[in-house]
Amino acid sequence: MIKDIQQEILRIKKEKHITILAHSYQAEEIQEIADHTGDSFRLSELAAKDPNDTLIMCGVHFMAETCKLLSPDKKVILAKEGCGCPMAEQLSADELRQLKKQYPGHTVVAYINTTAALKTECDVCVTSASAVEICRKIENDKILFIPDCNLGAFVAGQLPEKQIRLIKGGCPVHAAVTEEEALTAKKQHPGALLLVHPECVPAVAKHADYIGSTSGIVSFAKKSEANKFIIGTEISIAEHLQFECPEKEFYTLSKRLICPDMKRTTLMDVYKTLQGGGLEIKMSEEVIKKASVCIERMLELG
User: Fold this and answer.
1) CA distance 80 to 107
2) Is 25 within 8 Å of 83 (Cβ atoms)?
3) Total structural domains in the chain?
4) Domain containing 14 — which CATH number?
5) Measured distance CA(124)–CA(263) in Å, rounded
6) Which residue in 284, 289, 281, 292 sits closest to 65, CA to CA?
7) Helix (H, G, I), strand (E, B), or coil: what is residue 269?
8) How many Å from the N-terminal Cα to the C-terminal Cα in the chain?
9) Residue 183: per-residue pLDDT
10) Which of 70, 103, 175, 186 is deepest in the core (most CB within 10 A)?
11) Residue 260: its pLDDT value, please?
12) Is the pLDDT of residue 259 over 90?
């Protein structure tokens, strides 16, 4: 049944010249029918270069918005309406304006996991993979980093010469993992390397053999000569890696590392979106223009 639906999706998208984008946290059966897979910003970059004018994002709302910012003339559809991101939505543009008054003279650095509305108030954007490099290149030593305090703390630890202000918040899924779970996992799987996302709390990250973005974790595991890994990010990554590297062993750091919003999108949602479903992302020219400034600055520095 699943294979039949996949074959029909492949047929329809080819017939209608539609490109399917699937974030790394999506299920294996969705990744198999996607044209591009990977981290959110990488997907937006690939979509901008793709020849098709209609894009289906299998992910969450801010990812579809970022895709629209990089491809304003294309039709961008979120496959499952209502899939949000607590971290991206935790701070409003009005609240950020108040923070900017509280910390005058600071360069506002926004994690890519933010809404388009929030990006209109920021100076530069970063991904988890580029955050340290870009913050190092910012001439101003005073930085207000939003919204993930754990990623911000990781950046601050790498750049002691910078004065990095953080706000309370971040990814509730990654932040829920405890130091006790990290120590237990290492004890249960002796010899396995612990790879964690910087959205995890510092108490967990300090036990890691590698700290990096989702794509960084995947790349490290594939290239490493080691054959056992504890994956400290969304559990789907351990599954994908097991498919790609069957000769290696992958263990999840915590059973709680499940993003409910990512798991809401199903193969049938993709099928229905190809038939006119989903949520089309629409933004005013003003929002697109203002929100694109911090992304353009990121590309300049990155």
Assistant:
1) 34
2) no
3) 3
4) 3.40.50.10800
5) 30
6) 281
7) helix
8) 44
9) 98
10) 70
11) 96
12) yes
Helices (H), the chain: 2-16, 28-31, 40-49, 61-70, 93-102, 116-119, 131-137, 149-158, 172-175, 179-188, 202-205, 214-223, 236-244, 260-263, 267-274, 285-301
Helix (H, G, I), strand (E, B) or coil at 240: helix
> Cα(220)–Cα(226) distance, rounded to whole angstroms?
10
Helix (H, G, I), strand (E, B) or coil at 57: strand
Question: Which residue segment(s) compose the domain that 6 sits in?
Answer: 2-85+262-282
Check whether residue 124 and residue 185 sit in a common domain: no
Same domain, 78 and 207: no
Is 106 found in the same domain as 130? yes
Euclidean distance between CA atoms 64 and 79, whole angstroms: 9
- What is the average per-residue pLDDT within 148-152? 97
CB 68 within 8 A of CB 49: no
Q: pLDDT tens digit string along 83-107?
A: 999 999 999 999 999 999 999 999 9
**pLDDT for res 230:** 98
Backbone angles phi, psi at 146, to 5 degrees: -130, 155
Q: Which residues, other chains included, contact 240 with Cβ-Cβ below 8 Å and sequence gap of 6+?
A: 24, 28, 31, 218
Give 141's contacts (C-beta < 8 A, 6+ positions apart).
161, 162, 163
Alpha-carbon span 93 to 291, nearest angstrom: 11
d(CA 107, CA 42): 24
> In terms of C-beta density within 10 A (0-12 exposed, 13-18 middle, 19 or more buried), how is residue 224 classed?
middle
| Same domain? 293 vs 278 | no
The percentage of residues in the chain with a pLDDT greater than 90, rounded to a whole number, is 98
- What is the pLDDT at residue 295? 96
Mean pLDDT of 117-144: 97
The CA R_g of the chain, rounded to the nearest whole Å, is 19
Nearest to 165 by CA among 178, 175, 155, 174: 155
d(CA 61, CA 75): 14
